[in-house]
Amino acid sequence: MQPRTIDLRVASFADLDTRTFHDLLRLRIDVFVVEQECPYPELDGRDVEPGTRHLWLAEDGTPVAYLRILADPGGVERIGRVVVAPAARGGGHAGRLMTEALAVVGHRPCVLEAQSHLVDFYARYGFTVSGPEYVEDGIPHTPMRREPAS
């Protein structure tokens, strides 16, 4: 049996073909809306912004993990929608995406809203808690920030 190839991909919205965008949204909706039972507006308009970068891992062309980087005001980058397909969990995919995302972010400050049970995961990438925990869509979240290395 041949080992499966998992490719890393990075694209702006303008560079995404319709099938890929569909598959990325399906992964996000399958996990965030269906699995986590959070009916919320997944299409928030930020996917199409010129400064948004979509990063994903594809196995045989099918997305198995994804995140997006948004350009927030003031030169701050925002990582969000970090997701791994249930069948692909435990394979280090989220870590691989975070490493690549931080390479894309470079020397700019970066923020994210972590599901609180994942604070330690994000701390491994230099993020620190930057505000009080809050509940969004029934799930505890913690704001986190990573300053550029000096």
From TrEMBL:
<dbReference type="InterPro" id="IPR000182">
    <property type="entry name" value="GNAT_dom"/>
</dbReference>
<dbReference type="Pfam" id="PF13673">
    <property type="entry name" value="Acetyltransf_10"/>
</dbReference>
<protein>
    <submittedName>
        <fullName>ElaA protein</fullName>
    </submittedName>
</protein>
<dbReference type="GO" id="GO:0016747">
    <property type="term" value="F:acyltransferase activity, transferring groups other than amino-acyl groups"/>
</dbReference>
<dbReference type="InterPro" id="IPR016181">
    <property type="entry name" value="Acyl_CoA_acyltransferase"/>
</dbReference>
